[in-house]
């Protein structure tokens, strides 16, 4: 079986935690225990988020008096792919000593005319009180939006159109390697392979990657056991098996479960007979067996 497993942001950092390396490495070790169970006898491709890490590097770059200009987002995305990929490689090799593990710096093709560039919506980095957010907006030209009680930077998030290293990735997977790729949705580039000042949604890239690699299962791993019908109400209940049409009809939060649901629907529609699964990383084997989480299939 061929599996694409997309680690949610909680796999590296939970809301309110410091961005210390030790904190993230501890979470990587937890995540790898779940991933190791998926690798047994299967092709495995792992993707991951990088929002807090890119946000941290962007803050540091913008504040560095030695720089004539801050580093662009595509370069920061590439830097975080390397750092997180290294952590995942190190831990996966410890638990899978007989498998080759490779992290592949991955570029994602985007359209420079994508309307997302006119309406930045993707949160990166930490939250700020309103007064500090206004100061950063004026000092650094950042677009800022509320996220709960705090404000955070938002950047364009264009649609992923293609994955540049797909052929190399396919060869590595066919050769038996566990591949870590498309971290943070991939480094966004235009058709001429110039870096783009944006970030790509990691779940939408994971869905595209899974479809192009002809995966049997796309696993969107997060910190909740399943998609919840009636989320936030006294009547909330987990959703089991569901079709893309029914899932899209649900009123899911746009800042959290909504993008995961859309990614799952796209994969299920592009790969009839395959399934997308949304659920907790700690339930990974049960998710794969259809015994936990929300399973999205096209009838």
List the helices and strands and how they pair.
Elements: E1 2-7, H1 21-39, E2 43-48, H2 51-63, H3 73-95, E3 101-104, E4 107-109, E5 122-128, H4 130-140, E6 143-147, E7 150-155, E8 162-163, H5 166-174, E9 178-181, E10 187-189, H6 202-212, E11 217-222, E12 228-229, E13 237-238, E14 241-242, H7 244-248, H8 257-270, E15 275-280, H9 284-288, E16 294-296
Parallel strand pairs: 1-2, 1-11, 2-9, 3-9, 4-10, 11-15, 14-16
Antiparallel strand pairs: 4-8, 5-7, 6-7, 12-13, 15-16
Principal-axes geometry comes out as globular
Q: Ranges with pLDDT <50 over ≥5 residues? A: none
Number of helices: 9
From the N-terminal CA to the C-terminal CA, the straight-line distance is 20 Å
Structural class: alpha/beta
State which percent range the strand residues make up: 15-25%
By DSSP, the count of extended strands is 16
Kindly report the spatial arrangement of strands forming the biggest sheet. 3-9-2-1-11-15-16-14
In a nutshell, what does this entry contain?
The protein contains 9 helices and 16 strands.
Would you write up a description of this structure?
The protein is an alpha/beta fold and 299 residues long. The protein is built from nine helices and 16 strands. It has helices at residues 21-39, 51-63, 73-95, 130-140, 166-174, 202-212, 244-248, 257-270, 284-288; strands spanning 2-7, 43-48, 101-104, 107-109, 122-128, 143-147, 150-155, 162-163, 178-181, 187-189, 217-222, 228-229, 237-238, 241-242, 275-280, 294-296. The strands form four sheets. Strands 3-9-2-1-11-15-16-14 form an eight-stranded mixed beta sheet, with helices on both faces. Strand 6 (143-147) and strand 7 form a beta hairpin. The two termini are 20 Å apart. The mean pLDDT is 92.
